[in-house]
Write a structure and sequence with these properties.
Elements lengths: L2 H12 L5 H22 L1 H10 L5 H4 L6 H5 L1 H18 L4 H5 L1 H19 L5 H29 L5 H13 L1 H12 L9 H10 L2 H8 L6 H6 L3 H19 L28 H22 L2 H7 L4 H12 L4 H6 L8 H19 L5 H28 L6 H50 L10 H5 L1
């Protein structure tokens, strides 16, 4: 494998100007992620329906109910199963994209969790529901890692932040759709099925579209070069250059010299070496902290509204209004994603989330709850695209997917237990108890993200050194 050739390919990608070709790749990858986000975010909106179906009674939960904590937080078992599956997918299988390629894994992990979700929709007991949710979560976890890796390697360094913002604008656009479906279908039985089953099945039909999306996305030239497939990498970069030059009508700038990545086997052990140990530890703790706020609110918002005195039907309506804000956080971020240091954006989002959830816990007027919910959602999603970009930038190509998988996996296992903890806190201390839990977590996240290196405007190869 020629590390110098890999550096040349990276330099040619990084000098590309903004163009339809580049943004087409971002959009197509994001469209694949839409189905993943649909599957990930429907939890909070279908939970009331699953509770009403009696799926979270001790009898229905079976062996899950043998643990007292799980029995108290019935909906928490579903959240737990979701994130336990995500944890296995990111930690154990996150590295498969380093071995088999970004494009291949992008396709098959999507199909995996769509099929599993469709099977889950027809389960009639809480235990079976949670088991299939765990299995589908493995596929979602793999997909999350692959998408972050894919975008960082295809997009020029000067546009990476905006690329992640656009990616999450597109993927988060599906959240209000889920909320709207849950709101209009609640209490109905389309095709003789309970509404929550229909919401799950609607997302599963998206698997058909992935084949059309996949054909138009190239493999990562950086990954190909690192695996000695130089002719394929050269052909893809040359084709991208040809299209970009035809679109812009001007000659491409001369590639700047890029420092070649060091040789390495790309093993998990490398991310615990002297160069990456601090990044790995701080990002692992950060991921555990941020997810408590992000999913602690997103997955529980209808239930939190009910505990603030809102009727169950109205809570779904208000949750839908709040959900509309999801794509607008990343959309706002497109204005400053590559102008501000990534860490600054993450810290700003975490600070706002901590303040807003404290105010939310004390409010009771519906319009105030909605405004605060919108503000929390906007700041959470600005924080989200920024840290997804950041953690993909700070590791080298040879180990990027497995490194992202490792640090990201801690957010998955933290979310699994946080789902149970929030259920218990809500039962014993109400929304203020949940708000305190989220607030402390935001402070921990801020401290950890500040320990990492700066990445603004730097090539991936320079950051990796």
């Amino acid at each position: 494998m020629s590390t110098q050739k890999s550096a040349e390919i990276a330099a040619r990608l990084d000098r590309l100007p903004p163009s339809r070709t580049i943004w087409k790749m971002v959009i197509l990858i994001s469209l694949g992620g839409v189905f993943e986000f649909y599957d990930l975010f429907f939890t909070g909106y279908i939970a009331p329906g699953m509770v009403k179906s009696g799926l979270f009674t001790p009898e229905s939960l079976g062996f899950f109910a043998s643990l007292q904590t799980l029995a108290v937080a019935g909906v928490g078992t579903f959240v737990f199963a979701t994130f336990a599956g995500l944890w296995v997918g990111t930690l154990i299988f996150g590295s498969v994209a380093d071995k088999f390629g970004r494009r291949f894994i992008f396709t098959w992990s999507l199909i995996w969790y769509m099929v599993c979700s469709a099977i889950m929709a027809f389960q009639t007991s809480g235990a079976a529901l949670d088991i299939w949710r765990f299995i589908s979560g493995i596929g979602i976890g793999i997909e999350l890692v692959t998408i972050d890796t894919y975008i960082s390697e295809l997009i020029p360094s000067g546009e990476r932040g905006r690329a992640y913002a656009v990616n999450q604008f597109i993927t988060f656009s599906v959240v209000p759709i889920i909320a709207f479906l849950a709101f209009i279908l609640e209490g109905t039985h389309p095709l003789g099925l309970e509404y929550w089953r229909v919401v799950v099945l609607i997302g599963s039909v998206g698997a058909i579209a992935v084949w059309f999306v996949r054909r138009k996305i190239p493999e990562s030239p950086r990954w190909l070069a690192r695996h000695g497939r130089l002719e394929e990498a050269e052909a893809i970069v040359a084709e991208i250059e040809r299209k970009v030059q035809a679109e812009t009508g001007v000659a491409l700038p001369v590639p700047q010299q890029v420092q070649a990545e060091k040789e390495g086997r790309g093993s998990l052990r490398e991310i615990f070496g002297p160069l990456y140990l601090r990044r790995t530890i701080s990002l692992s703790i950060f991921n555990m902290a941020q997810v408590i706020g992000f999913y602690g609110f997103a997955a529980w918002v209808p239930t939190l509204l009910i505990h603030r005195g809102i009727h169950v039907t109205a809570s779904l309506q208000y949750a839908f209004i709040i959900a509309i804000a999801n794509p607008f956080g990343p959309l706002l971020g497109t204005w400053f994603a590559d102008k501000l240091e990534r860490k600054t954006q993450v810290v700003g989002g975490l600070v706002t989330m901590g303040v807003v959830i404290a105010l939310f816990s004390q409010a009771s007027e519906p319009w105030i709850l909605i405004v605060l919910g919108v503000l929390f959602t906007l700041s959470a999603n600005i924080m989200s695209y920024a840290y997804h970009s950041y953690q993909a930038e700070v590791y080298p190509t040879r180990v990027r997917a497995r490194a992202i998988g490792f640090v990201y996996s801690w957010s998955r296992i933290a979310a699994a237990f946080a789902g149970l903890a929030i259920g218990v806190l809500l039962h014993n201390y109400g929304v203020p108890g949940v708000a305190a839990f989220i607030g402390v977590s935001m402070v921990v996240g801020i401290c950890m993200i500040l320990l990492g290196p700066s990445t603004k405007g730097l090539t991936l190869e320079k950051i990796s050194h």
